[in-house]
Design goal:
CATH superfamily of the largest domain: TTHA1013-like
Helix content: 40-55%
Structural class: alpha+beta
CATH topology of the largest domain: TTHA1013/TTHA0281-like
Radius of gyration: 20 Å
Number of domains: 2
Strand order of the largest sheet: 3-2-1-4
Order of helices and strands: HHEEEHE
Strand content: 15-25%
Length: about 110
């Protein structure tokens, strides 16, 4: 059918069947949704000395939190308001978290 590995093709067929759609219609919708989705804002995240930091220049975001989970909750709460303040599409905001590993200098 799609010239895909059997396991992947079987999963696509099951998903389409669960949604009650022919496979071709399911894939067309999936591709269309992907191509028309709002671009994601990249949120850079890192931890240094037990402080989690998130930064997204496009949204004007720079925050810190004690925990990773707390940081994610705060970012998700603030992002729509910051998008609106920056006259961006706040209704369809998508976030992509990019994790940076903090560098450590070795003792000389």
């Amino acid at each position: 059918m799609l010239n895909l590995p059997d396991r992947l093709e079987a999963k696509i067929q099951r998903l389409a069947q669960q949604l009650g759609q022919p496979v071709e219609q399911f894939l067309d919708k999936l591709v269309n949704d992907y191509l028309t989705a709002a671009p994601a804002f990249v949120v850079n995240v890192w931890c240094h000395e037990a402080v989690w930091t998130a930064e997204c220049a496009a949204l004007g975001l720079l925050i810190e939190a004690d925990t990773y989970d707390g940081l994610l909750v705060t970012v998700r709460q603030l992002a729509p308001a910051l998008a609106q303040l920056n006259r961006l599409d706040a209704d369809n905001i998508r976030l992509r978290f990019s994790h940076k590993q903090a560098g450590h200098r070795l003792a000389e």
